[in-house]
Amino acid sequence: MSKFISDEQWNDYEQAGYLKLGKLLNGEDLTALQQRIDDIMLGKAAVDYDRMLMQLDSSDGQYENAGVQSKGFKGATFNYRKIQELEYDSLFLAYMQRPIFEEICAHVYGAETPIAAFRAMFMNKPAHQGTLLPWHQDRWTHLDRDPLITLWTALDPATVTNGCVEVVPGSHKFGLINPTHPSAFITEAQAAQFAPEGSGIYLELEAGEVVLLHNWLLHRSGVNTTDISRRAFSVCYMDARTHASNGESYSTIFGEDALQPDNLGMATV
Fold first, then answer.
1. Is-above-0.90 flag for pTM?
2. CATH number of this structure's domain 24-263
3. What is the mean pLDDT of the chain?
4. Contact of 146 with 255, CB cutoff 8 Å
């Protein structure tokens, strides 16, 4: 198996909780995914919208005022905050199944472990909008084991001024800070302790760049004050043997019975 990531890079990841992988999308491939997500937002894509969880952005930047997260199309607009279940789009699925991501999953979960997508989602901060996301870790109390990694791909330049992700390096080593919260948001007191002012760094990325994130790494993001959107594709890869107490099931990405892009009706990247 080809080795895309060196032992030194893995050591850096273990210490920091994140690793920049460089520009994995260039030229036509990047343009294709940008156009595809725009078509999905505008209702022009041949996808099963009833299967996709879609959420509109807040109008005032406040997390609690973002739209309802529910299945189905919410209207032709670029003001979506989140669109999930993109593994059912062949263009995004083909990208998710690139060999470098398979190697990362094998390293983290074990070479023989089947891998599913807990969520394959578009995250967006529209121009002069965007929702403030407070400090949190990514974990979910309804799962019998924690998904450990997320691969985050910038579809636009991600900058401080348009709401790029901010992380506290090494904070994954704290373990679960607020384990009873369903999605691991932390309190103001916990933020003062574990993410004091000045401890964060901004993960600025060019369009097409990718960063590997440990799900327990403390992170947050701000609003977008610029004229360009901050579109991104975020995939949380998990052990496919994970059970969910709410009855949800998850599509296999690597392993036996994995989804196949050719069966979903679009070209691959």
1. yes
2. 2.60.120.620
3. 95
4. no
